[in-house]
Design brief:
Layout: H1 3-30, E1 51-52, E2 68-72, E3 76-80, E4 87-91, E5 96-99, H2 111-117, E6 121-126, E7 132-136, H3 137-140, E8 149-154, E9 157-164, E10 177-179, H4 180-186, H5 195-204, E11 205-207, H6 208-211, E12 219-222, E13 225-226, E14 229-230, H7 233-242, H8 247-256, E15 268-277, E16 280-286, E17 291-292, E18 299-305, E19 312-313, E20 318-322, E21 328-331, E22 342-345, E23 368-373, E24 376-384, E25 389-394, E26 408-416, E27 420-425, E28 434-439, E29 447-455, H9 462-475, E30 490-495, E31 497-504, E32 507-514, H10 518-530, E33 536-541, H11 565-577, E34 581-586, E35 590-592, E36 614-616, E37 634-637, H12 643-657, E38 662-665, H13 684-701, E39 704-708, E40 720-722, E41 736-737, H14 740-745, E42 750-751, H15 764-774, E43 779-782, H16 807-821, E44 829-838, E45 846-853, E46 858-862, E47 868-870, E48 873-875, E49 879-883
């Protein structure tokens, strides 16, 4: 080989080595980042060891005669059926009995729903072909006899172990091959005087050598079917049973020819637990306890729990509370069974998969539901697995159409453990293309736990439901009572720097436009203070890292045109002196798609197929979330696992560069994301737990936290909440709008809703009446510069923020609100009643309502256009009336 050839081969080898090193380096790079280890956050319940089930009272002797009494507390008794594991809870304080399944022979339901009604739980799974299957505890375990379920006693409760699936092997109980002599002796001799059965068997058992050329010896073989129809399994099994055929004979006959039947059981071991604690009951499903006995059937993707617990029939009186926005009430038997049932995921849609919003619904901020049934009431909330839950409700109906399919009014929680999405395969459309369903590989493995609070008293309603959940949050340390009375907070949002496109000689370029400076902010505070408005919580948007749609929050580069660090500290000192504070706004869950100092390869959430979690703000005209003509309005979802590392950089930089005790978290209490790709996966529930942990870390260093959104896991860390729900969504099935969210929080955390001047269909009176109903403080977002400066940019949405248009109205709003609510700062909302009207499908509910506080104060609000009188109290149209407590 000459020198030139050697040089060529050497160069080729060097090129291959360089390419290989580059590939190895790239693979190392994308896997080298530190992902937070969140395994310690997994929540599992330990209810103690199982022991033999011994009832306290046998059936026929207790309050529920058909069941045995299993457990009791000073308030409750738990009864359970030995025959099908249905159960009931007897509240001895009001003698109410809450059944796990509807009662009475007059049930109207299709066969599927009849099985669901008697099932404590159900689940869905994928097989190896990505086909979905569903299992329900009643039809797939309890109806097969007690050999497919076992009831155990545990401290203060019961544990039920189900073997879910059909263990009947059918024709596999018969031999595939059988010796001719034995066949004639045991089977055909039995049918000698029965020509029809003899013909039936002869048609389905043939000489084995005719069907299988490799088969030798005197055997007959059972065929698969005849004329395209399967064998009549029941008839064939009955004939062999008459011949007293045993299973060991089947195994022996098959072994003579070496035949091994391919029998697959889609069997699952499932554990379901019920535990009483005072006046509460916990229902728990350990996900690790759902074990498929065949790996093919291990992909559990959804779980339903106690779908018909507490259901009311068509003759029952009551209502269902749903957490739609501020809260909604669905009356039993409201004749809306043709409408779609209520169904919303807790903490909003999964943003990693959502492209379209069929309607502009609000996120569910609290994982709760309530049921009042014939004068008794309960409220339920998800204790573990909140972020995987969906709240569902439906009313009784007699149709099998799009709405109700049963004669029961019911509400329940379901859980999504895995996500999936269709992946379009390449090829010519309609010729060589197709979709393949990709399923999330790693799923949540903790427990799914629901806590039910049974409420005593005469005809308890919304107030008692709110107080029961509120008391639980207080016990958990999530809520701390406010000191009161005192002036209520005014929430002032300021728009700082925005990135806009400008032109020089027709050439576009991006630049920062300062809409409001700290000098302007002092001017606004002077105007508000002159009107007697204190304290003020100021949320400053667009103060660092390239403006409102800022770069990833690691480094802190203050925009001096908005305000220097010294000016920010001076403003905070001024506001703190009056009980308020300055709260610079920061995003951690979302970041600009073109963010600096950020790896889109490693630090972004990914969907099942591995695509980036990419989105833009919602375009209301087309109901899209992933489209925008403005490149500075494109965002990516930050992988939750890297947020602890981001905070490692941000917190010391914020302390060094700014050094104030206030911060506003724009998305940590609002947006909940996950990353479901097989590399570094984290599900929604662990994301929730991780974000809660990180908010606690922030609050320990920056105590004055304003949190946007108000998801319930943010309560322990929030000094103030903004952007909380103050009205309900417009689901047709909902009858009344109620301020349940406010009823839980009032007297514990001060809060405000959407900025008043950013609401659709704005009306000063509407804004004030909403504040009077919900207790939400006034909040406005202002700019010093005219909003025309944001024209042709994504920040056009701030078109209604110029202060000259809103300052006088904000002062008027606060004046009326504070006069009413300053004495009520530390009081709880103990009840809410709708005195007249219904929630119609319009912007404002046409209702007359009264909100009752713990000191006896009543606030009457008349949203109608007619004067309303209630027991001597006259409420003018479109106004309110306050009656102070004693």
């Amino acid at each position: 080989m000459d020198r030139k050839t050697k040089r060529a081969w050497r160069n080729r080898l060097i090129f291959v080595v360089i390419v290989a090193a580059a590939i190895v380096g790239y693979v190392w790079y994308i896997n080298s980042g530190t992902i937070y280890d969140f395994a310690h956050l997994t929540r599992t319940m330990d209810f103690g060891e199982s022991r033999e089930f011994v009832p306290i009272v046998e059936e026929g002797q207790g309050r529920v005669p058909t069941m045995v009494r299993a457990v009791e507390t000073p308030y409750l008794s738990l009864y359970i059926s030995r025959y099908d594991t249905t159960f009931a809870v007897h509240d001895r304080r009001n003698d109410a009995v809450w059944h796990s399944h509807p009662q009475g022979p007059e049930l109207i339901a299709n066969p599927l729903h009849r099985n669901i009604m008697r099932s404590n739980m159900g689940f869905s799974f994928y097989d190896e072909s990505r086909r979905r299957f569903h299992r329900w505890m009643y039809q797939d375990a309890a109806t097969h006899g007690d050999y497919q379920f076992t009831i155990y006693s545990i401290p203060n409760g019961v544990r039920i172990h189900y073997i879910v699936g059909n263990m009947d092997i059918g024709l596999h109980a018969l031999p595939r091959y059988m010796e001719v002599g034995l066949f004639e002796e045991r089977i055909m001799s039995l049918l000698a005087d029965r020509p029809a059965d003899e013909h039936f068997v002869n048609q389905r058992w043939r000489p084995a050598d005719e069907l299988d050329e490799n088969q030798e010896g005197e055997f007959v073989r059972m065929i698969d079917g005849i004329f395209g129809r399967p064998i009549d399994e029941v008839r064939m099994l009955a004939i062999f049973e008459e011949a007293e055929w045993e299973m060991y004979e089947t195994l022996h006959q098959n072994s003579l020819v070496g035949y091994v039947p391919d029998i697959n059981f889609d069997l699952f071991d499932v554990v379901f637990e019920l535990v009483l604690d005072g006046d509460r009951m916990m229902a728990n499903v350990p996900i690790e306890g759902i074990q498929g006995r065949d790996e093919v059937y291990a992909n559990i993707f959804a779980v339903d729990m106690l779908r018909f617990f507490g259901a009311g029939c068509v003759e029952s009186e009551g209502f269902i509370l749903v957490p739609s926005g501020s809260g909604g009430v669905i009356n039993f038997n409201n004749m809306k069974y043709r409408e779609l049932g209520f169904s919303l995921p807790v903490y909003g849609e999964d943003m990693i998969n959502v492209n379209f919003f069929p309607q502009m619904e609000q996120a569910v901020r609290m994982p709760v539901l309530g049921i009042q049934n014939n004068g008794a009431a309960l409220v339920a909330h998800v204790y573990s697995g909140q972020a995987l839950a969906t709240v569902n409700a439906n009313v009784a109906g007699l149709t099998a159409g799009v709405g109700a399919t049963t004669s029961q009014n019911h509400a329940w929680f379901s859980f999504q453990l895995r996500t999936s999405q269709p992946l379009t395969m390449g090829g010519l459309p309609g010729v060589a293309s197709g979709d393949m369903r990709v399923v999330q590989e790693n799923a949540y493995t903790g427990d799914l736990t629901i806590m039910y609070h049974f409420i005593a008293g005469e005809n308890p309603g919304l107030g008692e439901m709110a107080q029961a959940y509120q008391q639980f949050l207080v016990e958990q340390g999530a809520l701390t009572p406010l000191a009161g009375p005192g002036d209520r907070t005014f929430y002032l949002d300021l728009l700082g720097a925005v990135d806009v496109q400008r032109h020089i000689l027709g050439t576009p370029y991006m630049t920062l436009e300062s809409m409001t400076t700290m000098e302007d902010a002092h001017r606004f505070v002077d105007m508000l203070n002159a009107a007697g408005i204190t304290p003020i919580q100021m949320q400053l948007h667009g103060w660092f890292n390239r403006g409102v749609n800022h770069d990833v929050a690691k480094q802190v580069n203050v925009i001096n045109d908005v305000g220097t660090a010294a000016e920010l500290r001076a403003m905070n000192d001024r506001l703190r002196a009056d009980g308020g504070g300055l709260n610079p706004v920061v995003n951690f869950m979302l970041t600009n798609y073109y963010s600096r100092n950020f790896s889109r390869t490693f630090e972004v959430s990914r969907d099942v197929a591995g695509f980036l979690g990419f989105m833009s703000r919602v375009a209301r005209d087309v109901l899209l979330t992933r489209t925008s003509i403005h490149r500075n309005d494109w965002f990516v979802l930050v992988h939750p696992g890297v947020i602890p590392a981001h905070l490692d950089d941000f917190l010391p930089n914020f302390e060094r560069r700014v050094g104030i005790d206030g911060l506003a978290l724009a998305d940590m209490g609002d947006v909940l994301s996950e990353s479901v790709y097989r590399r570094n996966p984290i599900d929604r529930e662990h994301s929730r737990l991780l974000i809660s942990e990180q908010m606690g870390r922030i609050e320990a260093e920056i105590p004055n936290l304003v949190i946007f959104g108000g998801n319930d896991y943010s309560f322990p860390f929030a000094s103030h909440l903004v952007d909380v729900p103050t009205d309900t969504d417009r689901f047709f099935i909902i009858d009344y709008e109620v301020p349940f969210y406010s009823m839980v929080l009032h007297g514990f955390i001060e809060f405000a809703g959407t900025a008043t001047n950013m609401r659709e269909n704005f009306s000063p009176t509407n804004a004030l009446l909403n504040s009077m109903t919900t207790g939400a403080a006034p909040r406005y977002i202002l700019t010093a510069q005219p909003t025309r400066n944001t024209q042709f940019s994504p920040h056009e949405r701030f078109y209604s923020t110029h202060y000259v248009n809103w300052m006088e109205m904000a002062i008027w709003h606060y004046y009326h609100f504070n006069n009413v609510f300053a004495p009520l700062r530390g009081e709880q909302m103990v009840d809410f009643r709708v005195l007249s009207g219904r929630r119609d499908d319009i912007v404002i509910p046409q209702q007359v309502t009264v909100t009752i506080f713990s000191d006896g104060t009543r606030i009457y609000v008349n949203n109608t256009y007619h004067t309303f009188e209630y027991y001597g109290v006259i409420i003018p149209p479109r106004w309110f009336e306050v009656v102070r407590g004693a």
